[in-house]
Amino acid sequence: MGTAPVVRIEGSSTVFPILEEAVKAFQKRQGSPVSIALKETGSSAGMRRFCSGEIPISNSSRPISSKELKACAAKGVTFIELPLAFDAISVVVHPSNSWASRISTAELSTLWNRQAQGRIKRWKQVNASWPDRPINLCGPGADSGTFDYFNKAINGDSRNSRTDYTASEDDNVLVNCVEKNPLALGYFGFSYYRAQATKLKALAITGPKGTWPPTIDNVQQERYVPLSRPLFVYINDKDLRDRPEVRRFITFTVQGGLRFSERAGVIPLPPDTYRVVESKLYRHLIGTSFGGDLPVGLSINEAIRRSFQQIRSKSPR
Length: 317
Prior knowledge:
With 317 residues, the protein is of the alpha/beta class. It contains 14 helices and 14 strands. The protein has helices at 16-29, 43-51, 66-74, 105-112, 123-126, 145-155, 171-179, 190-195, 216-220, 237-242, 244-255, 257-264, 273-282, 300-313, and strands at 6-11, 35-38, 57-60, 79-88, 90-93, 102-104, 136-140, 166-168, 184-188, 201-202, 204-207, 210-212, 228-236, 267-268. The strands form three sheets. It has a six-stranded mixed sheet with strand order 2-1-3-13-4-14. A five-stranded mixed sheet has the order 8-7-9-5-10. Helix 2 runs parallel beside helix 3 (66-74) and helix 13 (273-282) packs parallel to helix 14. The radius of gyration is 20 Å and the shape is globular. The chain starts with 5 loop residues before the first strand and ends with a helix. The mean pLDDT is 92.
């Protein structure tokens, strides 16, 4: 008897819970043994390994970057980009925090941009009505797609961030960081906030559409901007064609995308959209719909439209 083939999946901690649900269901259902090795390493770390051809599947909480596109091209890695769900980056505090219930995008920038380093250290410096007490920050590390997206949305550049805070690519570490400290503020993916909603308090975000808390409805109604974003899985096309176990697993994941997203506590795409995602997979539509760009504030409809423009442009004549 040979050993079971291993499918390696790495990348985003925000996308991780969806794939974790898919892996559990797949391993219960499948006929022949396939081992799935799933790791949360951060979107950027996952894409580094993916573009070097070391892993067949990478999860990402942002579209592939222009630098990563070049790295993939240099190694001859062609890929299919599939949106799987949506996320609301949630800004959270300790439930005993009585002064903050909302925060504006301008206040978030005051707190998190590079110039704040070593300088903005107290709640009162962010909002004059807040207490003159230390603020303890918890956030993703620089290998995280959440870090990239948040800083692009709030500070105008994916690398424009202070670094003097408790950082981790593991969102559970960040949840713990806020849960244990009444003076903490952190940001991370919606499913991690939702799973610990009794131990955390999410702030409403005042942005271009008014003041809205992170909820499934507010994301689906396109009110929670600019901190909502699509979540992706990238599949190496050669592995998809040459390795039946990769094709079987990713087909199973997309077919159950709505169910797995709901179980993982993330925000699913509209139900009929998963059929369009399947169509992108079956037709081997290679490449990215985002051209190396990190678009901020895309609504679900805009993200879906952009993601599937390839289908229309490559329809048979």
